[in-house]
Amino acid sequence: xxxxxxxxxxxxxxxxxxxxxxxxxxxxxxxxxxxxxxxxxxxxxxxxxxxxxxxxxxxxxxxxxxxxxxxxxxxxxxxxxxxxxxxxxxxxxxxxxxxxxxxxxxxxxxxxxxxxxxxxxxxxxxxxxxxxxxxxxxxxxxxxxxxxxxxxxxxxxxxxxxxxxxxxxxxxxxxxxxxxxxxxxxxxxxxxxxxxxxxxxxxxxxxxxxxxxxxxxxxxxxxxxxxxxxxxxxxxxxxxxxxxxxxxxxxxxxxxxxxxxxxxxxxxxxxxxxxxxxxxxxxxxxxxxxxxxxxxxxxxxxxxxxxxxxxxxxxxxxxxxxxxxxxxxxxxxxxxxxxxxxxxxxxxxxxxxxxxxxxxxxxxxxxxxxxxxxxxxxxxxxxxxxxxxxxxxxxxxxxxxxxxxxxxxxxxxxxxxxxxxxxxxxxxxxxxxxxxxxxxxxxxxxxxxxxxxxxxxxxxxxxxxxxxxxxxxxxxxxxxxxxxxxxxxxxxxxxxxxxxxxxxxxxxxxxxxxxxxxxxxxxxxxxxxxxxxxxxxxxxxxxxxxxxxxxxxxxxxxxxxxxxxxxxxxxxxxxxxxxxxxxxxxx
Length: 587
Hints:
- This protein has helices at 3-9, 52-56, 115-128, 155-163, 175-181, 211-215, 226-337, 340-358, 517-520, 570-576, and strands spanning 41-43, 49-51, 62-70, 83-93, 100-103, 112-113, 144-146, 151-153, 172-174, 200-202, 207-209, 223-225, 378-388, 391-398, 408-410, 416-418, 423-428, 444-450, 457-458, 460-464, 469-474, 480-488, 491-492, 498-503, 513-514, 554-555.
- By secondary structure, the chain is of the alpha+beta class.
- Strands 16, 18, 19, 22, 23 and 24 form a six-stranded mixed β-sheet that branches. A four-stranded antiparallel β-sheet has the order 15-17-21-20, with no helix packed on it. Strands 2-1-6 form a three-stranded antiparallel β-sheet.
């Protein structure tokens, strides 16, 4: 085959070597899906451009059927006859913005071509490829480019391209001239009529057309030169951009900058706070460790103190044991082995020694000998422990033991009570220093026994208040004196047993605690009073400074001058005065 024949049969451009490169100089010439130079770039409704093949390979997001109106097969627009047919519309997600966009029923071919992307592809080829080979013969160096066929041509193929009848009208530009421009300005050609530039605009169809389209498919339409309508349509785009979208773009950019600044501030603040938290945690952990060491030292001090006390107590017990054992052995040997004279001669010194040992204040019974086994030492993890290095800490060691001799009772219910009415008193356990214990849990026993009726005992309730105090309540059923035993750790506290007197319930007053019946009754002659006072002039009640008036406020029902008192029964009143005493009439 001759070189001329190759020129005539080769019409398609060969793929550029840049289509397989991973890194390109101009990102506007690269498809974001395949990462190669655009091949037949199409514009999605969201204004993002991808290769036609890449759009066809997108997975459908949804598929719907719609009525599509087809034009007549001859392509003439404006005819009255139209065909309606159901069409399948495929919705895909844009790979860039993730928007839902519809692909025309005809597929990616029905989308608008991105000619700006084609310009970028060609400029990328010119700038980065260096010396280009001829796309037709593949032998000579390319010097020109056919803007219609989009092929690079050597000088020989360029002449052959111009000699052919169907390509003679194509626009051929010098590569050096195109490189010098820096921006490609090539004509947009008709897809139906190759070689025909889109110079007209069909207003009814809202499409750019070539001369042949205007003469055939759009012959009944109003077609105008593109230069006559570009201002009107371009101004509409410009108005939308300048008036509505450009200010919105600036506001969005400003808001985005604020968000970015806020993110940076947030990150900086979080990091600074994290540093503070870590510093606090280290310091607090150091304070807790110091507090722990302090508690352990305190615990060791208590151990040594209690151990020394036990050593002393053991030594005292050993000495007492030796004294008692030696005296008992001597006395028993004297009685078993000695004669009468020997016993009588040693009687004096023996009795003095035995009496001395028997009268010592030390009680060797197990209930009274209570060695310190450390049970009083306890750790209170939730109780505030003060501050260490400026940090509040919790956890204290309690080591106080109750001193039975210093325990006290509070409340009148320990001395007097009323028959059938509940009585109360409070036991307060104290340490050797006399301070109230801060915790409960002591073994407390309260027993109330009638002094005359030995089988008459009173049920008691002891409530631990968990603060060293114990509330005791009871309800007496019998009158008389009772013995109240209050024991802590099986030992009587100071003053125990106590004497409790139970009396009958006081009789309530039925009258008025007043000054005189004359005043309280408003001068009524019928008014009478429990006191023996009388009023002259026929009044039966008492009056100020008159005969029998007690000289102070008194109860009108019984004449008692004590406001907090029991109402005297009628038998007592009769013994005091033979008169009949009635409560003052209140008018």
